[in-house]
UniProtKB/TrEMBL annotation:
The protein, known as: Beta-glucuronidase C-terminal domain-containing protein
InterPro entries per UniProt: GH79_Enzymes (IPR052974), GlcAase_C (IPR031728)
Keyword tRNA-binding tagged: no
Key words, A-Z: Signal
Signal sequence, renumbered to the chain: 1-19
Ranges for domain Beta-glucuronidase C-terminal: 393-489
PANTHER family cross-referenced by the UniProt entry: BETA-GLUCURONIDASE, BETA-GLUCURONIDASE C-TERMINAL DOMAIN-CONTAINING PROTEIN
Family annotation (Pfam families): Glyco_hydro_79C
Amino acid sequence: MHPKVAVATLLAFAHICSAIVNITIPPYEPKLARIVPKSLVGISIEMDRWIDWSGPAVGEPNKLVNQLLSNLANYTGQAVPLRVGANSQDRGFLAPEFEVQNLTFPAATALVPQPEASRIGIGRDWYKLSGNFPPYDDFYGSGAQALAHPDIYDYPNPLNPNAGIPGWSAKRYIETWNRAAEGLIKKLNSDVPHGPRFQAGVIADPFNAWIWGIRQALVDGLQDSAAAKYIKTYRSLFNSIACQGSRITRDGIPPASGSLMGRAGVRGNLTKHAEYAEQTNRAGYEYVIGETNSFSLHGVPGVSNTAEAAIWLADYALQAATLGVKELDFHSGRGFAYNLIQPVAYESDTTNMSMPAGIEGGYYGALMVNEFIGLYPEVKIEELPTFNTGVSAYGAWEGGDLRRILVLNSAVYNSTANSTRDYQTIQLIGHKEQKTTVKRFYAPETFSTSGLLWGGQSFETADGKPSDQVTYESLSGTILNVTATEGVLVCFK
Ligand SMILES: *[C@@H]1O[C@H](CO)[C@@H](O)[C@H](O)[C@H]1NC(C)=O
Ligand SMILES: *[C@@H]1O[C@H](CO)[C@@H](O)[C@H](O)[C@H]1NC(C)=O
Ligand SMILES: *[C@@H]1O[C@H](CO)[C@@H](O)[C@H](O)[C@H]1NC(C)=O
Ligand SMILES: *[C@@H]1O[C@H](CO)[C@@H](O)[C@H](O)[C@H]1NC(C)=O
Ligand SMILES: *[C@@H]1O[C@H](CO)[C@@H](O)[C@H](O)[C@H]1NC(C)=O
Ligand SMILES: *[C@@H]1O[C@H](CO)[C@@H](O)[C@H](O)[C@H]1NC(C)=O
Ligand SMILES: *[C@@H]1O[C@H](CO)[C@@H](O)[C@H](O)[C@H]1NC(C)=O
Ligand SMILES: *[C@@H]1O[C@H](CO)[C@@H](O)[C@H](O)[C@H]1NC(C)=O
């Protein structure tokens, strides 16, 4: 071949190659693949809004919430974990003179249009409301409904002098925890056949100091009490992905559309959790990110409640699973921009915002994750490298065979700014000839809050049941396109 022609061919080839993202299908289950927990995606509910979720009275469930939770549970065969508590729990008091509860709220502000209650009176039926959920739901939290997994706290926060009890420290937390747990064991042992399953380590750390992980807790005496043998889970709390960024940054500018999703941010925010998960698993406990979500102060409207949140949530949760995280509980309240589910419709007098009951963007991320996880008893997960900063991919193995791949494209699409919608062509290297279907998460634009579809189905329905029939494409060959802000589940039969 003439040298010039060779060079020209090479350049042309290089150009084509740079447009294609290769995903290699490993011939065997990778050594580092881990079992992906069925209940990876959980919901952490502010205690003051418990009845929004449970329904107002015993025997009067919130049917919409139950349907939306069942949709998610249906993919994995296991309940969506509900953790009831959060920081409003520190302001909860028994108030048996009330049937259900008595709440006192501080004034709303434009920045926090739906503040959490400053005082919560826990009435007689408050715990019994957990009976309103489908029977397979799993509960965590304080009190009687959570006998199986008590969660004891006022959580100490070393760096925020305005939070918690003055003089409170990690060591005092552990001492208090031990005392409370021992007391509970005495009360519970006769009721819970195999003993309670405690969770410990509910320590808030909003300023990324990362000083109170399992190491410190063990040094401070976490295993000193008779309760220690019942500890199953260690929880890390309060990690909004960009705590420093928050809903309005210091310079007053909210994070822009497109700034949440993306490989770098997701992995950067999980680095410390990876370290903690490793240490916690090594100590023999499950590691749970017990309260997390996108941007602090309840999320950024236009980002946290959009299609982008779905791509982000799927990447964040599955990446966490590859790092040994057992569960992530996505923080939710009433009217929060980052809720997966808005349990009730609400209006804010402060901002004039109103939101119907139903789902928000992140819910589709949970659908993608749970369908990826599936029903098979022990599904293993590993990330599939893509060598592209805008595309993540994860594989799901069943009994050693790769059964599904989820591909997420975190490029932005804004129909006003972009004349065409960007897409990535993916080549599945090593894909054998076999029946293969493709299911897509579609969004009109990155910042869309409605019109989102999972396999052609909308979950934006009045009763929470998916609209229409599921649509699958069949994949012939080894090439597929994944457009900007799209998630694609490839299933091998
Ligand atoms: C993708 O795989 C093909 C082989 O099918 C290879 O020729 C090409 O160099 C790879 N591209 C990249 C960007 O790795
Ligand atoms: C779960 O999903 C399957 C398939 O989409 C459907 O046939 C079944 O009725 C669902 N079950 C429940 C309990 O929703
Ligand atoms: C509810 O509690 C507040 C104190 O936090 C009290 O002022 C109010 O009267 C209580 N409501 C009722 C109906 O007792
Ligand atoms: C966390 O994620 C946000 C949003 O993607 C990003 O801006 C921030 O830099 C990330 N933090 C770290 C420590 O990587
Ligand atoms: C909300 O609407 C009222 C009445 O239209 C108006 O006076 C007020 O300024 C609005 N508040 C905000 C934050 O837009
Ligand atoms: C979409 O692009 C237009 C034109 O550049 C811009 O004005 C608008 O702010 C963008 N929308 C979002 C949500 O970023
Ligand atoms: C699409 O528009 C966004 C701004 O909204 C820009 O960041 C991005 O580079 C554009 N993508 C393409 C492929 O033009
Ligand atoms: C990918 O998209 C491009 C541009 O629309 C198209 O030419 C190509 O045929 C598509 N490939 C597949 C496998 O759909």
